[in-house]
Automatic annotation (TrEMBL):
<feature type="signal peptide">
    <location>
        <begin position="1"/>
        <end position="18"/>
    </location>
</feature>
<dbReference type="GO" id="GO:0005539">
    <property type="term" value="F:glycosaminoglycan binding"/>
</dbReference>
<comment type="similarity">
    <text>Belongs to the sulfatase family.</text>
</comment>
<dbReference type="InterPro" id="IPR017850">
    <property type="entry name" value="Alkaline_phosphatase_core_sf"/>
</dbReference>
<dbReference type="InterPro" id="IPR012083">
    <property type="entry name" value="Arylsulfatase"/>
</dbReference>
<dbReference type="InterPro" id="IPR024607">
    <property type="entry name" value="Sulfatase_CS"/>
</dbReference>
<keyword id="KW-0378">Hydrolase</keyword>
<dbReference type="Pfam" id="PF00884">
    <property type="entry name" value="Sulfatase"/>
</dbReference>
<keyword id="KW-0325">Glycoprotein</keyword>
<feature type="modified residue" description="3-oxoalanine (Cys)">
    <location>
        <position position="78"/>
    </location>
</feature>
<dbReference type="GO" id="GO:0018958">
    <property type="term" value="P:phenol-containing compound metabolic process"/>
</dbReference>
<dbReference type="GO" id="GO:0004065">
    <property type="term" value="F:arylsulfatase activity"/>
</dbReference>
<feature type="domain" description="Sulfatase N-terminal">
    <location>
        <begin position="34"/>
        <end position="381"/>
    </location>
</feature>
<protein>
    <recommendedName>
        <fullName>Arylsulfatase</fullName>
        <ecNumber>3.1.6.1</ecNumber>
    </recommendedName>
</protein>
<dbReference type="GO" id="GO:0008449">
    <property type="term" value="F:N-acetylglucosamine-6-sulfatase activity"/>
</dbReference>
<dbReference type="InterPro" id="IPR000917">
    <property type="entry name" value="Sulfatase_N"/>
</dbReference>
<keyword id="KW-0732">Signal</keyword>
Length: 602
């Protein structure tokens, strides 16, 4: 057993013991286990202000619950993010890193053995009735839905590809029945009916329930039968007819990073041309369409809360609302999409309401999607699994002392970035008929689903928030680097990472030089890029097991300069489309075992 495995095993055992104690305490104090209603939207932004346009969600969840404003995804792409959420594991541990085979999608989820070993299966084993409706994973299709059927649910009604994102031509597949087309009906109305039906089933059951409702809004619309130039296209989402007239004057927030004069980022982003007025107008149209599409979700949540209230189960039900990843529109000159490590893509809404959850509170704790499965376990009174890479979120004050607080988020991505949108979508006019940015962004090329692709978008990064610092550090597969200090550069326009072409006065971070801060950040990322279990939760303990180091501020003490000056650097040997360990460069950091001494792990 190597050192990292030993540390992981010891820390995991300690976490598990604490969770078992908490489980016993909860079972003694609670008359019956709580119900859990989980609502997960698709591609919903936080940074662009979408939550300000959903008044019913604000009324029921924000005002009656807690808003976790520092909640992050660990991969800004739907299928990898969802698999991480359902397993509590980083994408480098699930090895589901894309939306389609061979590196992702439902077939990869099955191949990796998760169909028998993920959250709904665990909750069923713990005595919960489990239900699901809406989108589960990409590449879950009308051809493979029974090869095998998804396990873990007492009742399910899944959206299936290639109709998952077709707002007016969706196909759902209930339990083990054949798929059913809902052509002509809006998918949000369809899922609302199905969600209320499963909630009725859950309320009639004799066990606590876990119900997931996963609408596709505000994801782009994809009609597989509609081709432009022989390609399937990703266009703006389609709202319900009763919402089409809303927000006519609303525009994408004109923040400093919206279509900036002087862009930042790695080379493929920094080299994007500034968008002309036609593209800016299109971005505004796309943004309004997303807000309109979310109105159906707002009504869906309202109807679910109303039914819980009627049933007298609202006070015994935790309601969790989030999204699989964020979204950008025009920031850093980017066309609509996700897949980047910028705040718009990785920071998402998280609202929690339920027994003991403070009402109207805003929580600053750093939380991530891999913390959600441990949180569901804790709410259900279950001990944490040792393979969880995350830790339970303190959704109630009495749980705060049971959580290992972390300052970091590991964000990772492999393969191509995706550019969404289509100029002919503006105003419903088909006359333009060219792919968004296609004529100007020559570095993009067309992927199998017709979307514009960015071939080099593989990176590892760490997002850090602590007392006196607010940082983002990334290393790309072509070995470009980014460092943003969001305390002074909230829109990530000034890359602080030293380059041969920049000659500026070197800034300081927490009173130390930029180079010393980078040494610590890079070593931290070296641990996190291949961490497992408890080492993902306490990476500083891996680097300095003999010292009381719990934060960047602790690690920046000058007595540790020798350790961090000599660390191997995070790098890639080549760019690849998936998690290929041979391409990932150094895997093992140096560790300090006795004060300032250091040696190589074996």
């Amino acid at each position: 057993m190597n050192l990292i495995a030993a540390i992981a095993g010891l820390a995991a055992a300690q976490i598990a013991v604490g969770a078992n104690v908490q489980s016993v305490f909860q079972s003694d104090q609670r008359a019956s286990p709580p119900n859990i209603l989980f609502v997960i939207t698709d591609d919903q932004d936080l940074e662009l202000g979408s939550v300000s346009y959903t008044p019913r969600i604000a009324k029921h969840l924000r005002d009656q619950g807690t808003f976790f404003r520092n909640h992050f995804v660990t991969t800004s792409l739907c299928c990898p993010s969802r698999v991480s959420l359902w397993t509590g594991r980083q994408a480098h541990n699930t090895n589901v890193t894309d939306v389609n085979p061979p590196y992702g999608g439902y077939p990869k989820f099955v191949e990796r053995g998760f169909n028998e070993n993920f959250l709904p299966v665990w909750l069923q084993d713990a005595g919960y009735n489990t239900y699901y409706t809406g989108k589960l994973f990409n590449s879950h299709t009308i051809e493979n839905y029974h090869s095998p059927h998804v396990k873990g649910f007492n009742g399910s009604d899944f959206l299936l590809d290639p109709y998952t994102y077709s707002y007016r031509n969706s196909t759902y597949q209930r339990n083990h029945d054949p798929p059913v087309s809902h052509e002509g009906k809006h998918t949000t109305d369809v899922i609302t009916g199905k969600a209320l039906g499963f909630l009725e089933d859950a309320l009639e059951g004799d066990r606590p329930f876990f119900l997931t409702v996963a609408p596709v809004a505000p994801h782009s619309n994809i009609d597989p039968g509609v081709l432009q130039g022989g390609r399937v296209t990703m266009t703006a989402p389609i709202p319900l007819m009763r919402h089409e007239h809303l927000f006519e004057d609303v525009k994408v927030p004109r923040t400093d990073n919206f279509n900036p004069d002087n862009p930042s980022g790695v080379s493929w982003i920094r080299g994007l041309p500034q968008q002309n007025q036609t593209v800016v107008d299109y971005n505004d149209h796309f943004y309004r369409s997303r807000l309109r599409a979310l109105q159906g979700v707002d009504e869906l949540v309202d109807s679910l809360v109303a039914r819980l209230e009627e049933s007298d189960q609202l006070d015994n039900t935790y309601i969790i609302y989030t999204s699989d990843n964020g979204f950008h529109i025009g920031q850093h000159r980017l066309p609509p999409g996700k897949t980047c490590g910028f705040e718009e893509d990785i920071r998402v809404p998280l609202f929690v309401r339920g027994p003991g959850v403070p009402a109207g509170q805003v929580e600053d704790a750093v939380t991530t999607h891999i913390d959600l499965a441990p949180t569901f376990f804790q709410l259900a009174g279950l001990p944490a699994r040792q393979d969880f890479d995350g830790t339970a979120i303190p959704v109630t004050p009495d749980l705060d002392g049971t959580r290992h607080v972390h300052e970091h988020v590991t964000v990772e991505y492999w393969g191509r970035g995706v550019a969404e949108g289509f100029f002919s979508d503006v105003g419903g006019s088909p006359s333009v008929g060219i792919k968004i940015e296609q004529q100007r962004l020559t570095q993009f090329h067309t992927g199998p689903d017709g979307a514009s692709m960015i071939p080099n978008n593989t990176y590892k990064s760490v997002r850090l928030l602590g007392e006196g610092y607010n940082l983002y550090y990334s290393v790309w597969c072509n070995n470009e680097h980014e460092l943003y200090d969001l305390s002074t550069d909230s829109y990530q326009l000034h890359n602080l990472y030293p380059s041969n072409t920049r000659v500026t006065e070197e800034p300081q971070i927490l009173g130390r030089s930029l180079s010393q801060a980078i040494n610590r950040l890079d070593a931290l990322l070296l641990v996190l890029k291949s961490c497992q279990g408890a080492t993902c939760i306490d990476p500083w303990g891996v680097l300095q097991p003999a010292d009381s180091i719990r934060s960047l501020q602790d690690a920046l003490d000058e007595q540790y300069d020798g350790l961090y000056d000599n660390q191997p650097q995070v790098s890639f040997d080549w760019c690849d489309a998936g998690y290929i360990i041979e391409a990932e460069g150094p895997q093992t950091p140096l560790t300090s075992r006795h004060g300032i001494s250091w040696d190589v792990w074996v």
